[in-house]
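Journal club prep — side note

Before the paper discussion, L.F. wants everyone to see what a predicted structure for a comparable chain looks like in token form. Sequence:
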Amino acid sequence: MQTPGSQSSLHRANLERVVRAVRLAGSLTQAEIARSTGLSAATVSNIVRELKDGGTVEVTDTSAGGRRARSVSLSGDAGIVIGVDFGHTHLRVAVGNLAHQVLAEESAPLDVDASWTDGFDRAETLVGELIAGIGVGLEKVIGVGLGVPGPIDVESGTLGSTAILPGWAGINPRQELSRRLGVPVYVDNDANLGALGELVWGSGRGVKDLAYIKVASGVGAGLVINGQIYRGPGGTAGEIGHITLDESGPVCRCGNRGCLETFAAARYVLPLLQGTHGPELTMERVVELAREGDPGCRRVIADVGRHVGSGVANLCNVLNPSRVVLGGSLAEAGELILAPIRESVGRYAIPSAARQLSVLTGSLGGRAEVLGALALVLSEMGDSTLLAGSPSLKLLPSVR
């Protein structure tokens, strides 16, 4: 019997440490693995050789700092992960491998609010079509990341607010999709997944503390602290849209008055312009008109930016993030909305926090959440199954 302190257990722990570092990063040089794990260069070299022989990782020649290096990534044959993103008006599905490569992606218009059954039926069909298109079956799927436009109750796994998706009341999205696909499902709200997507693939790369602000049909924030999503004990951290700006303001869907959302979300902003621009006006069109110079659209976007900036200033004072990434449809407005956000941050945030903060738009656009769903699986999945091909591991105990 192997004891926790035995050489074999230590070896197993080191193997899992290396696999975890590569899994989270997508690819690393052996020197980067050594720095990330604290293992010696010689130990990393031996472990990488063993994992390569077992088919767990792939090693390719590259360069780092002008010197030759070896880049290590998980094998493309080790399995695939799937991301599913439900928005209020769309469904997006993506398929990726463990080397952080997106293999297939598709989106479709969908009234998610109307029927959860229709939403899951369409998601199940789209997943089947995409994995068939790349020539694999469900047996190769390691896990599915699922994003929904609302907070998830940590204890029950159900949506935490029926006011956001009333047709989904009492539904456990994780259990429903897992039942249909027969694979593990990891679920989170869309703002958290947007933060993960930008952290791994987009404008959040290279930082460990950021806030992803999504302004669309609602206003929410995904918070990253020390490289990890912070959800709070009840799963509702980041509900920046319900910061009170005006106690005498409009009644919000949450029941309070004057929430940030009532000054920034599409459902409250569009009526300000529909009288002059027509009832079919969308936020995407508002942004387009503003960029063309329409004065009314520019004014509304600037006002939204100042209000969002007030919420960002509160985040700065409490959490002191180094970067704020703006997502959602209004992010396409660029400096038209970023400048007023920065203005409010400069006015209301503690000066030292404001000086350290950079505010920029996301680089992934509408793909941030579905790519974040892929990243969710890559961050939550265990490492033991990835080590099954290593010959020396068959008799070693799993370390937890």
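L.F.'s comment for the group: Residues 389-400 have pLDDT under 50 and may be disordered. Keep this in mind when we get to the figures.
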